[in-house]
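Homework help board

Subject: predicted structure for assignment chain

Our instructor gave us this sequence and asked us to write out the predicted structure in token form, then describe one feature. I got the tokens but I'm not sure how to describe them. Can anyone check?
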Amino acid sequence: MDFVKMEGLGNDFIVVAGPLTPTPDQVAQWCDRRRGIGADGVLVVDAGETVRMEYWNADGSAAEMCGNGLRCVARFARLRGMATTDAFVVTTPIGPRRVEVRESTVRVELGSVAVSPGLVEIAGYRAVPVRV
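My token output:
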């Protein structure tokens, strides 16, 4: 398997050109920092009519979205010629996301953010603030 190791704002990923659907056990083995490649997750990037992103967490579970992973997918797709312009769309399990690859930065659309007392919601995900 050919792969690239990429880092996006502190998260590191194993990035592979698809099509590929790894098993949860394969993902966990690859992400193991002592016995495998070591990573926070696996990203599979596939190109057809649009660039498509699939993401698995280090434990092998499938995830709908990862913002830092999306940054890596955008850069990977541009470098590999899967996208021919600097601004393009990446299809994710939660819908299309606009990205823009520049020389030193990658901008990505993560979705709307709503803030209410004691609760933060980002693109359908909810997090309750905890004081430590």
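Reply (TA_rk): Your tokens look well-formed. For the description, you could write something like this. The mean pLDDT is 87. That's the kind of observation they're looking for.
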